[in-house]
Amino acid sequence: MKLLGAEVDVAMGIGSAPDYPTSQERVADLVLLLPMTTRTSIGDIIEIANVRFKVIGISPSYDGVGKLARYVVEATLWA
């Protein structure tokens, strides 16, 4: 996944972030960066462009001074 005009794959940066979950037990089909106001839980269903995903992991992500910046949400395809 790349942002328009970006040279670097965004997913590579997310996966190498120090606060990204490193559990080998889960295999995410989708990783979202959601705002701090997000109210989601493991097991919730998220629908994007008529495709449904089940949340399998949520991790807080902090900025450079240790303040909560966003949530990293991992999800798998859901039929």
Features:
79 residues, mainly beta, 1 helix, 8% helix, elongated
Beta strand %: 35-45%
Question: Could you list the spans in which at least 5 consecutive residues all have pLDDT below 50?
Answer: none
Number of domains: 1
Biggest β-sheet: count, sense, barrel? 4 strands, antiparallel
**How large is the count of helical segments?**
1
What is the mean predicted local confidence, pLDDT? 79
Note the run of SSEs as H and E: HEEEE
* First and last CA, distance: 23 Å
Shape field: elongated
Radius of gyration: 13 Å
Q: How would you classify the quaternary structure?
A: single chain
- What is the number of E strands? 4
Strand order of the largest sheet: 1-4-3-2
Structural class: mainly beta
Helix content: under 10%
